């Protein structure tokens, strides 16, 4: 799960982060494996 959250595009066949045209992909603000991922807002 941690890997999927820090790299949502790693498996295009299972792409789960879908953004609207007006949205920008979030950046990882902080990550501590295996339990914490903080994203910036979309």
Features:
42 residues; alpha+beta; flat
Task: Please outline what is shown here.
The chain is of the alpha+beta class and 42 residues long. The chain has one helix at 2-6; strands spanning 28-32, 36-39.
- Assembly state (oligomeric): single chain
| Contiguous uncertain segments of 5+ residues | none
Distance between the termini: 20 Å
- Morphology: flat
The strand order across the widest sheet is: 1-2
Number of helices: 1
Task: Tell me the domain tally.
Answer: 1
Percent of residues in helices? 10-25%
Along the chain, the helix and strand elements come as HEE
The percentage of residues in β strands lies in 15-25%
Write up what this structure looks like.
This protein is an alpha+beta fold and 42 residues long. It contains 1 helix and 2 strands. It has one helix at 2-6, and strands at 28-32, 36-39. Strand 1 and strand 2 form a beta hairpin.
Q: What's the layout of helices and strands?
A:
Blueprint: H1 2-6, E1 28-32, E2 36-39
Antiparallel strand pairs: 1-2
């Amino acid at each position: 799960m941690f890997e999927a959250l820090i790299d949502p595009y790693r498996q295009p066949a299972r792409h789960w982060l879908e953004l609207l045209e007006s949205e920008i992909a979030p950046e990882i603000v902080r990550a501590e494996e295996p339990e914490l991922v903080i994203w910036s807002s979309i």
